Amino acid sequence: MYMTTISSIKSKALLLRKQGKSYNEINDLLKIPKSTLSGWLKNYPLSEKVKQDNIQKVKLIWAKNIIQFNKRRSEKYQKETLRILEEYAETVPSITRRDLFFIGLALFWAEGGKKEKWVVQFCNSDPLIIKVMMQFFRKICKVPAKKFTFRIHLHPNISKKIATKFWSQIAQLPITHFRKPQTQISQASKHKRPVHQLPYGTLHIRIGGAHLNKKIKGWLLGISKQF
Hints:
Elements lengths: L1 H17 L4 H8 L3 H8 L6 H42 L7 H15 L7 E6 L2 H14 L7 E7 L5 H12 L10 E2 L18 E7 L1 H16 L2
Parallel strand pairs: 2-3
Antiparallel strand pairs: 1-4, 2-4
Helix pairs in contact: 5-6
């Protein structure tokens, strides 16, 4: 009876080996020590095809493990980074009117229109920067709502209606202040920029008035003289 059982298990082991199973896989299924399997199956080496198949399986398992490891490491890094950012964010004091004055001027110095004489122009694709500049124009420059006009520069794949609604909410002014959007592809991008990189395009703010133009440029001159 015992010999019959051994013979039956050995036959199963041989069948599994012919199916391309490794010693480890057979051991998992039949609970037979690998040393015993080695004696039973030494005359039944795996075919070259099965060997290559097993190698591919191992590579796939390895790749999957690496992907999972990298994913876990990335999640851990992002979580820790967010914690640090929030920690430093809590140390920032409340922004005063004086702070807004210098923040707005710095942004205009970097992104505003310097060549215009009769108008003030500012453009950017970052909604937060637009929010800050609208606060600067309203609170520091005292620009009334009626003086603002906007134009959106869009990639052809972007919905004009959706983009206009989005920037209208960011600027907190109705769409009646918006001119017809301009659709274009930057020559500098050579059509290689991902179409989703600027999901709402770039907003151009325009404020008529030579006096405000001179005022802002005068403020910037005042700052530059101190350096």
